Amino acid sequence: MSKTLNSIGIMGGTFDPPHLGHLILACEAIDQLVLEKVLWVLTPSPPHKEDRDISPLEQRKQLLLDAITEDDRFELSNVDINREEPHYAVDTVLILKEQFPHSKLIYLMGGDSLHDLPTWHDPVGFASACDQIAVMRRPDVEVDLNNLEVVVPGIAEKVVFIHAPLLFISSSEIRERIKSGRTFKWFLPNKVFTSITNNLYYQ
User: Fold this and answer.
1) CA–CA distances in Å: residue 18 to residues 47, 62, 68, 70, 144
2) Is residue 96 one of the residues assigned to a domain?
3) Which of 69, 87, 92, 175, by CA, is between 20 and 30 Å from 10?
4) How far, in whole angstroms, is CA 184 from its chain's centroid?
5) DSSP annotation of 109
6) What CATH number is given to the structural domain containing 133?
7) How many CB atoms within 10 Å of residue 101?
C-alpha cells in the first residue's frame, strides 16, 4: 500500500490518564490508514467536562509524554494548550489545518465519542473540517450512522472504522481502580504506571 502524502492523525482528549486503549487506537490508525504520524492534542479544559474534576494540566502532560515518547510517530501538539478557552474540537481542527495546509487530517476517536458527537459544539462544522474521522468501535457502544447522519449531515461519508482489539478501558475506570486499591498496572504503558505510582497520582 502506498503512503498517502502527509496523512496525519489527530488524537484529542484530557488523557487523565493516557492508557493502552489510546495507544492501540493510534497504532492501528497508523497501520490501517497509513498515517505519517499522530498528533496528540491535550485539552486543558474541555467544555463538555466542565462538571468533572480533571487533574492538573502539567500532571496530564507529563503522563502523556511518558506514554508516547518511545514511538517517533507520536507527537505532542500544544494547539489547545497555547490558546484560550473554550477548547472546541472544531476550532482545534481548523487551527491544525492552517499549520498543516498540505496534509490530510484524520480525527481519531472511540465509538463512544462518535455516539456523543451530536452533543459537541458545532458537530456539523467539526465533521466538515475533518478530512476523515477514524473510529474504533467499543464493545459497549452501538452507533447507527444513518441516524447520526440525520443529526450531523455529512458525517457518514467521513467515518471509517478501525479494526482493533475490543478493549473496554477507560480513564475513569483506571482512576477508580487506583482510588479503591485495585490492580491497574496492565491498563497502562509502563512509564505511565511508574509515574502514577511514584507520584501517588489519583490516590
Assistant:
1) 19, 10, 9, 14, 28
2) yes
3) 175
4) 20
5) E
6) 3.40.50.620
7) 8
pTM assigned to the model:
0.91
**pLDDT tens across 30-77, in order?**
999 999 999 999 999 877 656 678 999 999 999 999 999 999 999 999
Q: Please give the Cα distance from 121 to 87 (Å, whole number).
A: 10
Query: Residue written as cell 471509517?
Result: 160
Domain containing 114: what range? Answer: 7-168
Q: Which backbone phi and psi does 28 adopt, to 5 degrees? A: -65, -35
In the numeric block, the cell 458545532 is attached to 122
17: preceding bond cis by omega (within 30 degrees): yes
Cell numbers standing for residue 110: 472511540
pLDDT in tens, 150-185: 999 999 999 999 987 766 788 999 999 999 999 999
